[in-house]
Amino acid sequence: MQTNKLPYVVGIAGGTGSGKSTLSERLSKALPGEIVLIRHDNYYRDQKHLPFEERVKINYDHPLAFETDLLIKHLDELRAGRPIYMPEYDFTQHIRRELEVLVKPRRIILVEGILVLENAALRERMDLRIFVDTDSDTRILRRLVRDIHERQRTLESVIEQYLTTVKPMHEQFVEPSKRYADIIVPEGGQNQVAIDMIVARLRSVAAL
After folding, report:
1. How many C-beta neighbours within 10 Å does residue 48 have?
2. Residue ranges of the domains in the chain?
3. Is 146 strand, coil or helix?
4. CA 64 – CA 47 distance, rounded (Å)
5. What residue ranges of the chain have pLDDT lower than 70?
6. What is the pTM of this model?
7. d(CA 86, CA 19)
8. Residues 13, 113: contact at Cβ < 8 Å?
9. What is the CA radius of gyration of the chain?
10. Distance of alpha carbon 172 from its chain centroid, rounded?
11. pLDDT value at position 4?
12. Alpha-carbon gap, residue 103 to 94, rounded angstroms
């Protein structure tokens, strides 16, 4: 990345299971070497100080569950051309791992997560804001598959969490953040027309 150019920051938001990660990954593959991906999920607050029984009761879909100030600080470092050490999160234990990941600045920075358009300070640092819009039935089914197979959750726990925190928080914080989006993408990573349009835009940015 040339130091005389500020990175182009793209925010990708949307509900749980909407296809944000798939979209982010497809954009990254379309522009190899030009994009670095920062996931808001990596910035969940560390809950090591709590017993596991208390950790599972936390509302992980509320903005306060994230250390967004640290994400903003790291984003500013990347925008200034400096590398960061990004935290890693263990979703099975609800704690941060000891290992951090070295992330070097690139021409384009993707910031992905359910609430990345909810925070005003984070939004202000974005050059392009995208909201992935997928119907709720599809989203809950995708979350069920992900949480059971990747995060070792039970079917009952996923359903209970969805009804008690995920759905209410989506309606309170995630869905209203859609109004800040420059582009709304139905069906996320499955929308080839939208992907082609965004890739074309990002290629033009990378060529500058």
Report:
1. 10
2. 8-207
3. helix
4. 13
5. 1-4
6. 0.88
7. 23
8. yes
9. 17
10. 18
11. 58
12. 22
